[in-house]
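Spend some time on this chain, tokens included, and walk me through the fold:

. . .
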Amino acid sequence: MAHGSLSSWDDYPVHQVSETIRHSGTSDRNFYDRYYFNLHGSSDDLFMIMGMGQYPNLGTQDAFASVRRGEEYHVVRASKLLGDRMDTSVGPFRVEIIEPLQRVRFILDPPKGAEEDRAIACDVTWEGAIPAFEEPRQYVRKFGRVLFDTMRFAQTGCWSGSVEVAGESFSVTPDRWKGTRDRSWGVRPVGETEPSGIREEVGQMVGLWNYAPMQFDDFSILYIVQEEPDGHRTIEESVRIWADRSREPEWLGRPEFEHRLDSGTRMISTQSKLKFPDAPGGGFEVVVTPLLHSYIAIGTGYGVGDEFRHGMYRGTELVVESKTWSMAELETWGWFGLVDHVARFEIGDQVGYGLHEHGIFGAFPKFGLESGYDTAK
């Protein structure tokens, strides 16, 4: 029988520090370990985003699923106390690793009785189209404190299984149901909001965050730009990863972007261009056409609203909640947070699909935003 802080993981040779697996290598309250997935039909039919995270120094574990379908936005979320870290379930949610770095199953059980009212259920299996790829480390220190110190791998792929949304059923087949996923861990702001102190005027993340993993038939491109208001980039990435796993990844040089915001908002909903002028063999650009957007920051724990945040303590008992918003309500302010789009990506006559994610926080003069409250002219 295990005693103290022992758990099932301690019987595997995976230790990295002189602690049991229950304890992370840092006592920073903001240490986390999370899954992120998205699922779409290469169209504007629906956009589903799912996730699950553990927060060892907050003693919590939570999960969520959100779906944009038509003019409604649905969220199911759950939270519990963290136990054995090998237990990747939170109430009706489960993540199952079928083949590490290649096949993963995500399950949200349907309601079990009339007393439960949840708009989303699914049983879907992910198959990677490219090898999982280690992205650059994100490290941000402000006024002495490390706010971000995270590692992440990303992967494009396809889904199979079934999804139910507000009474509609969708058969998910890998010929057109695609998506991206990432696994990230490290230190980033989570849990209950902390006093900002000296950092109140600068915010946790400032400027433009722009992330676009895109999947074509023979390759995928992973694009990242995090650019601060003065033009300094805290992180960037542009790499082509081939579906043929015998081929090495191809770095594409410094990425550039060309975006236009909708008037009166911070929303990128019209056609954009991502540019790779220094790519081997000659520069090229990708035309990005958003198909359907989802305000992922709302209701899922990513930071808009204090009633549910990733890692927040919700009590000693399991909490499962379901909420639905009309898009008309969210369209007036949702773009102040993180926005995820299903998008079509075109390089000449090559067409791919994937995620176009953006957030513009605080001032960003390049887009004419001189303060955190400004919107596009």
Notes: The first helix runs from residue 327 to 330. The longest strand covers residues 145-165. The helical segments are 327-330.
